[in-house]
């Protein structure tokens, strides 16, 4: 489990990048928190810098749209899913369950 940020630091419609290997993007989609791999599955773009539309994020480089709930792209040019991670909110802090990856945030 790694610490992403405080809930107050991630208002609805915003995202944050958590550095590490891999880097993880955490989103607040209208009050629901989601975590996915930050690097697009198409090329080397940071999805935390993309545009959030409901439960979807649009890649800032070539506009592939990823479903934050599943990691699946819904349009080209991305064809592969990005990984999703469980998010836990406890005592006003957002944590991402990376399955044992070391925290570097
Ligand atoms: S790098 Fe994301 S769609 Fe191309």
From TrEMBL:
Question: Which Pfam families does the UniProt entry name for this protein?
Answer: Rieske (PF00355)
Quote the EC number: 1.14.12.19
SUPFAM superfamilies cross-referenced by the UniProt entry: ISP domain
Q: Which InterPro entries match?
A: Rieske_2Fe-2S, Rieske_2Fe-2S_sf
* Keyword presence, Metal-binding: yes
What GO terms are given for molecular function? 3-phenylpropionate dioxygenase activity
Q: Where is the signal peptide?
A: none
Instruction: Identify the residues that the record assigns to the Rieske domain, covering every copy.
Output: 2-96
Keyword terms, alphabetized:
2Fe-2S, Dioxygenase, Iron, Iron-sulfur, Metal-binding, Oxidoreductase
Return the PANTHER family for the record.
Answer: 3-PHENYLPROPIONATE_CINNAMIC ACID DIOXYGENASE FERREDOXIN SUBUNIT, FERREDOXIN-RELATED
- Protein name, as recorded: Bifunctional 3-phenylpropionate/cinnamic acid dioxygenase ferredoxin subunit
